[in-house]
Design brief:
With about 450 residues, this protein is of the alpha/beta class. It folds into three domains: about 80 residues, Winged helix-like DNA-binding domain superfamily/Winged helix DNA-binding domain (Arc Repressor Mutant, subunit A, Orthogonal Bundle), CATH 1.10.10; about 230 residues, Aspartate Aminotransferase, domain 2; about 100 residues, Aspartate Aminotransferase, domain 1 (Alpha-Beta Complex), CATH 3.90.1150. It contains 14 helices and 16 strands. The strands form four sheets. An eight-stranded mixed sheet has the order 4-11-10-9-8-5-6-7, sandwiched between helices. The radius of gyration is 24 Å and the shape is globular.
Length: about 450
């Protein structure tokens, strides 16, 4: 296989190799079943690092243009020819534009939380489903649908949740929302009024606090430790209407609430009449075993369960859901209908088929391995640069962890981080919140090095 690359242009080698192979596959020049050269052979042929070829092949696999056969090699996938495809010539940026982009964007390494590895989302399989749904869906699917969500998605979701998270729910108890944030906004409007009390974990997501406070309710803090909410400190003489919790992966500290505290929460809710709002935002990615069962599985009539596909698949897919007690379903659907009538129907149908064909299960299984490796790179990098000077919270699940350092931070730390072109959110005390799911391994290593430089300035 002959490829042409140019080391004198500003387009990165990885992008050139990937684009060249991609173009030839789409144009039909490399037919289905064609065996691509080994990464070692192609690296020698092009005189580039083998890592460049490995990453280019990973991108082809992720897009569905190629398939890997264990012990055999990498082959062009079936159905990857686009008739009439013409590749666009690469656009060369001017030197000044490249320099500006590098200083303003390309070189910034952000340990932002909540972002999955978007480059590894299997676009081709999703696109194939979307295309078939657009062709085959009845005309009614293009009109106004059920505000509660497409029935086939709710059926698939009910089955998925009981098997993966132990959630007890029939499809009639599930309402599809435009992201998890909408689910939380609507349920807090449903349950809280001015003068009510609501409990929130401390620390927690500040945007979440704003959502609850917008109802006029008074917010009271529930302190957390490395295991989640400290149930011994729950206010015994008060009667809150709602408690917001992240028991399967506390945000931001990362604790997984043990069963003893879960039972105490259920008992507290029964005693005080408080409903529990469980936000299960990323617990599919647990690295020390299977995800723990939901809090909702202990008492479906007192726990409202919220989930999202933003972390599992991609944030632009604005599909979340809430599992409600039977007594709250009708009122919630009415609020959903008033908010935006329905969540996009075609995307719901695509997602339901994605689940039914076990593509979601396959993707989660694959990404757990990717994120576990990236997490280990982050842990190794912290150990390399801060041996004996830190401890880690929340390492067993999710797409972020917290590094707590044993020395005081300087007051101008955000400025120092900015000067090193790196971002990590600072929590109270000497702690940094570090999301890693969206960062490649070399970015994680370089990002930690920059944090070390910022902390030592």
């Amino acid at each position: 296989m002959w490829l042409s690359i140019d080391k004198n242009v500003t387009v990165p080698m990885l992008r050139q190799v990937y684009q060249a192979i991609r173009d030839r596959i789409l144009a039909g020049e490399l037919h289905a079943g064609y065996k691509l050269p080994s990464t070692r052979v192609l690296a020698l042929q092009l005189n580039v690092s083998r890592n460049v070829i490995l990453e280019a092949y990973e991108m082809l696999l992720a897009e569905g243009l190629a398939i890997a056969r264990s012990g055999s090699g990498t082959y062009v996938a079936e159905g990857a020819v686009l008739p009439g495809y013409v590749s666009a010539p690469p656009i060369e940026a001017s030197a000044s534009a490249v320099e500006s982009a590098y200083s303003n964007e390309m070189s910034v390494i952000s340990f932002q939380t909540g972002l999955p590895a978007l480059e590894l989302f299997p676009r081709k399989s999703w696109a194939d489903l979307l295309q078939s749904v657009c062709k085959e869906a009845p005309d009614l699917a293009l009109g106004y649908g059920d505000p509660a969500g497409e029935s086939e998605l709710r059926r698939e979701l009910a089955d998925y949740l009981v098997h993966t998270r132990g959630v007890k729910a029939s499809p009639e108890h599930i309402v599809i929302t435009s992201g998890a944030v909408q689910a939380i906004q609507l349920v807090t409007r449903l349950l809280l009024s001015a003068g009510d009390e609501a409990l929130v974990e401390e620390p927690t997501n500040e945007d979440l606090k704003s959502i609850l406070a917008a109802t006029g309710a008074t917010l009271r803090s529930m302190p957390v430790d490395d295991s989640g909410v400290i149930t011994a400190d729950l206010p015994q003489k008060r009667h809150p209407k709602l408690a917001y919790l992240t028991p399967s992966h506390q945000f931001p500290l990362g604790g997984i609430l043990p069963i003893q505290r879960r039972i105490e929460l259920i008992q507290y809710a029964a005693r005080t009449g408080c409903l529990l709002l469980e936000d299960d935002y990323d617990s599919e990615f647990r690295y020390d075993g299977a995800p723990v069962h939901s809090l909702q599985s202990l008492d479906p009539e007192r726990v409202l369960y919220v989930g999202t596909f933003s972390k599992i698949l991609f944030p632009a897919l604005r599909i979340g859901y809430i599992v409600l007690p039977s007594s709250r379903v009708a009122d919630f659907i009415r609020l959903k209908q008033l908010a935006d009538y329905q969540t996009a129907s075609l995307e719901q149908i695509v997602l339901s088929r994605y689940i039914r064909k076990r593509l979601l299960h396959k993707h989660v299984h694959k990404m757990k391995k990717v994120y576990a490796k990236r997490r280990q790179v982050l842990l190794d990098s912290l150990e390399q640069h801060f041996t004996g000077q830190y401890r880690v919270c929340g390492r067993s699940a999710g797409l972020h962890l917290v590094a707590e350092f044993q020395f005081p931070f300087r007051e101008d730390l955000p400025k120092c981080l900015h000067s090193q072109n790196v971002f990590a959110a600072q929590l109270e005390g000497n702690r940094l919140l570090m999301g890693y799911g969206h960062l490649k391994e070399n970015e994680i290593r370089e990002g930690v090095r920059r944090i070390r430089n910022a902390l030592q300035r």
